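Final report, closing paragraph on structural work. Over the funding period we assembled a curated collection of sequence-structure pairs, and we close with a single example.
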Amino acid sequence: MLVVGICDDDKIWLEESKEIIIKFAQKTKIELQIQCFSNKTQLLGYSGTPLDALFLDIELGNNENGIHLAKRLNTHWNDCKIIYMTNYLYYATEVYDTEHIWFILKSQFEKKIKDVFNRILHDKGKQQEKIVLKTIGKQMMSVAPADIYYFEREKRTTRVVTTWGEYQVWDKLDDIMKQLPELDFSRCHNSFIVHFRYVQELQRDGYLLYNKDFVQISRGYNSKTKEDFLKWSILYM
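Its predicted structure, as stored:
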């Protein structure tokens, strides 16, 4: 679930941008919660679920400046990704005094929304750089999700196939899934978790990977994993 905020004093644009984001989320099946703010006071007074991203207008009315506000947010909301919105290109250089991930003209908002969410989801996944697993020797190992091709459950252990070798761990697939970036990985079988970034081809009954391994899709997971792959493909392919 992504929690996204929109802050703009123009209530018409506030609703319009919200509808564009909702439409995109429905198309890509991204679970989304949107919080809308029409001024600085509302935004700074927010105490709900922490925002993963904030679409912030640069000109907020009453001489309020979104860039100055972003400097405060960078300090208090370290994990919130800021996307500036404006009608004017001349702000493009000023925003680099703050931490942000995108500068977008309102006239291009709908056209660029896919790229923006691609970046939001990518950065959110990177916040969890490594997962921790328990090896057969009862030692703990950490591995970056980006290095993993897939997981395969074999009786009482799990085989972890990575770009630099294979490992046997005790962790069950249900527990492993909880540690993984949900957009990039999918449970496709009782015995398999696949990493979409290494899929060369989706076939009727499984995924052919770039390392030429074949990861099976079972009937029970067929609809969900193919839906997951479609969502991932829309964003990254």
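Residues 11-28 form the longest helix (18 residues). Residues 131-236 form a domain with the OB fold (Dihydrolipoamide Acetyltransferase, E2P) fold (CATH 2.40.50.1020). We thank the funder for supporting this effort.
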